């Protein structure tokens, strides 16, 4: 007999999944990520203040400046989540910290998205941080869409920019819009995808709302909108594009091997509609996710999700934290009891928050692709899986080898317990990574940027009453090690005992002092595998 309730629920779930597009927005600092995010929210109707980048920026800052240290430094450490509705879709944007010291936070956020928009400054081209971020996208074949920003400035030649993306980011590109002029001569963008044109009024730096519908570049109607020289250049460019690039291959975009490229100017609100409209058509819906046991499709009726970020102590008077969970399958229901795989225990989640534009609101349910905040008193940590009872943890939320290392020096022996607790909790939040040497139990903290040591020192003192110093230590890289032959691994550990530590999960790590020495050790121990990420 057909179970109509089950059938109805599954149809409703399919509808919800079809509506969701969850993406991250990434860039080298200053490329215009914050501005573009605001403009996307504006187009989506989620915020109302047009052109008020500055004031929005302040609002955004106060909204995400939960930690005192952030306020002091004026750096948005937080990865914010913003949801909005657009054309009957539910779009979830995950903003990421621009500051490179917080790159690890960004890397982890990328595990929670289904695609990425990468913002590139047309004057500066591909920058260092952009390259690193692309590496992370490539690890998971995340579909990437590029937005070349600041067209209102005298930028580099668009063809040259495309070549640079292909070369430095090692991904094929396909322009879907094309700039008509740049800087002072910017006239508009030609939409190669929809074959229409969006004109730009250079004197006022503002968008003309009306998009001109044309039949390709040879439509005589274009002559009334563009000066002859601009039109000729456009025709030449389009001819070249048609000759060089194949027709848009959506599948190649979806498997992460081709990046569609859009041009625009976020600050002048220009080229955003083209980006958003195309994004909503081609960007992927929530995809299946892998656990230790199986692939979990979003349509699986059982709820599941994983924690990718913990935001702590938003109110310093209470030791409360918000754990950000990405929902992978089924339906999350507020008040329900879910299984915490690592603890092998069930917890009730009566307080769940969704992040809509600039507000947080309590929600009753959520679906695959959604990111919600769960209030937590210390049970959850990054990488945790919640579900309805299955034992497997979600894969793909690894730690990366840090780049800077310092030894923790306890300045108050009476407060060792507080220090221990503080370190553990801050590591759970992913502020840094802790390595404990096998010999002498020395504790070393590894981070991506220098700023985290200050954050740690400040938070240990103010939240845990533990006073520490960080003393420089000569480490080049932490490598997770394993070997097929366990006796070979034991022999290696014995031989290099002074350089062996364990990460917080107890996994074996080789602390290499220099690049050349590490290479030598690798050559001398061919049976040992060295990994720069904790999941292998
Ligand atoms: P980020 O989040 O990627 O770090 O960049 P953000 O949006 O904060 O933008 C960095 C700077 O670039 C800002 O200027 C911003 O106004 C400017 N910007 C963003 N988009 C465009 C654009 O399309 N054209 C031009 N010309 N500039 C753009 P700022 O001087 O740092 O701040 P503000 O005082 O202008 O807000």
Task: Spell out the blueprint of helices and strands.
Elements: H1 4-19, E1 20-27, H2 33-43, H3 53-64, H4 68-73, E2 81-86, E3 89-95, H5 103-109, E4 115-121, H6 128-139, E5 144-149, H7 158-168, E6 172-175, E7 177-180, E8 188-191, E9 196-201, E10 206-213, H8 228-244, H9 250-254, E11 258-263, H10 272-282, E12 289-290, E13 295-296, E14 304-312, E15 321-329, E16 332-333, E17 337-340, E18 345-348, E19 352-356, E20 359-362, E21 365-366, E22 371-376, E23 385-387, E24 404-410, H11 416-428, E25 433-437, E26 443-447, H12 451-464, E27 468-472, E28 477-482, H13 486-495, E29 500-502, E30 508-512, H14 515-524, E31 529-531
Parallel strand pairs: 1-3, 1-4, 4-5, 5-11, 6-11
Antiparallel strand pairs: 2-3, 7-8, 8-9, 9-10, 12-13, 14-15, 14-23, 15-22, 16-21, 17-18, 17-23, 19-20, 19-22, 24-26, 24-27, 25-26, 25-29, 28-30, 28-31, 29-30
Helix pairs in contact: 11-12
The protein binds guanosine-5',3'-tetraphosphate (G4P).
What does this entry look like structurally?
The chain has 536 residues and is an alpha+beta fold. Strand 9 and strand 10 (206-213) form a beta hairpin. The protein has an eight-stranded antiparallel beta sheet. Helix 11 crosses helix 12. It folds into three domains: 16-282, P-loop containing nucleotide triphosphate hydrolases (Rossmann fold, 3-Layer(aba) Sandwich); 289-387, Translation factors (Elongation Factor Tu (Ef-tu), domain 3, Beta Barrel), CATH 2.40.30.10; 404-531, 2-Layer Sandwich (Alpha-Beta Plaits), CATH 3.30.70. Bound molecules: guanosine-5',3'-tetraphosphate. Guanosine-5',3'-tetraphosphate binds at residues 27, 29-35, 53-54, 57, 98, 149-150, 152-153, 265-267. Residues 27, 29-35, 53-54, 57, 98, 149-150, 152-153, 265-267 line the site of guanosine-5',3'-tetraphosphate.
């Amino acid at each position: 007999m057909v179970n109509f309730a089950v059938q109805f629920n599954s149809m409703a779930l399919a509808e919800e999944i079809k509506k969701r597009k969850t993406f991250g927005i990434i860039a080298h600092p200053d490329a215009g990520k914050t501005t573009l995010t605001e403009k996307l929210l504006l187009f989506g109707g989620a915020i109302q203040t047009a052109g008020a980048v500055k004031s929005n920026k302040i609002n955004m800052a106060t909204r995400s400046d939960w930690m005192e240290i952030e306020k002091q430094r004026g750096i948005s450490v937080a990865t914010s989540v913003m949801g909005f509705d657009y054309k009957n879709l539910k779009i979830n944007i995950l903003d990421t910290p621009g500051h490179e010291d917080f790159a690890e936070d960004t890397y982890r956020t990328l595990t929670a998205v289904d695609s990425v928009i990468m913002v590139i400054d047309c004057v500066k081209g591909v920058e260092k941080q952009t390259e690193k971020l692309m590496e992370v996208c490539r690890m998971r074949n995340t579909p990437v869409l590029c937005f070349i920003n600041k067209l209102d400035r005298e930028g580099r030649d668009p063809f040259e920019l495309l070549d640079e993306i292909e070369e430095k980011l090692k991904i094929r590109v396909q322009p879907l819009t094309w700039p008509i002029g740049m800087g002072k001569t910017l006239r508009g963008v030609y939409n190669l995808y929809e074959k229409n044109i969006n004109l730009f009024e250079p004197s006022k730096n503002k968008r003309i709302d009306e998009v001109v519908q044309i039949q390709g570049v040879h439509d005589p109607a274009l002559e009334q909108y563009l000066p002859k020289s601009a039109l000729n250049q456009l025709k030449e460019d389009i001819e070249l594009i048609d000759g060089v690039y194949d027709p848009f291959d959506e599948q190649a975009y979806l498997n992460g091997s081709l990046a569609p490229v859009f041009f625009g100017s976020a600050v002048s609100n220009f080229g955003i509609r083209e980006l958003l409209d195309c994004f909503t058509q081609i960007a992927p819906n929530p995809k299946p996710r892998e656990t230790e046991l199986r692939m979990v499709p979003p349509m699986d009726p059982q709820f599941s999700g994983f924690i990718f970020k913990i935001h702590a102590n938003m109110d310093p008077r209470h030791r409360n934290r918000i754990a950000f969970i990405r929902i992978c399958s089924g339906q999350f229901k507020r008040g329900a009891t879910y299984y915490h795989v690592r603890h092998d225990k069930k917890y009730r989640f009566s307080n769940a928050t969704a992040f809509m534009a600039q507000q947080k609101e309590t929600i009753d349910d959520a679906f695959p692709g959604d990111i919600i905040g769960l209030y937590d008193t210390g049970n959850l940590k990054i990488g945790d899986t919640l579900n309805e009872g299955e034992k497997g943890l979600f894969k793909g939320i690894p730690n990366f080898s840090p780049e800077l290392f310092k030894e923790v020096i306890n300045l108050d022996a009476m407060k060792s317990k507080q220090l221990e607790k503080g370190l553990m909790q801050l590591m759970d939040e992913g502020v840094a990574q802790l390595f404990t040497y096998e010999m002498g139990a020395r504790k070393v903290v590894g981070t991506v940027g220098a700023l985290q040591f200050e954050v740690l020192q400040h938070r240990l003192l103010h939240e845990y009453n533990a006073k520490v110093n960080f003393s420089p230590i000569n480490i080049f890289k932490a490598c997770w090690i394993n070997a097929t032959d366990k006796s070979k691994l034991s022999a290696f550990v014995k031989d290099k005992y002074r350089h062996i530590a364990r990460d917080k999960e107890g996994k074996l790590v080789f602390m290499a002092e220099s690049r050349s020495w590490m290479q030598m050790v690798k050559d001398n121990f061919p049976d040992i595998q060295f990994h720069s990420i904790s999941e292998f």
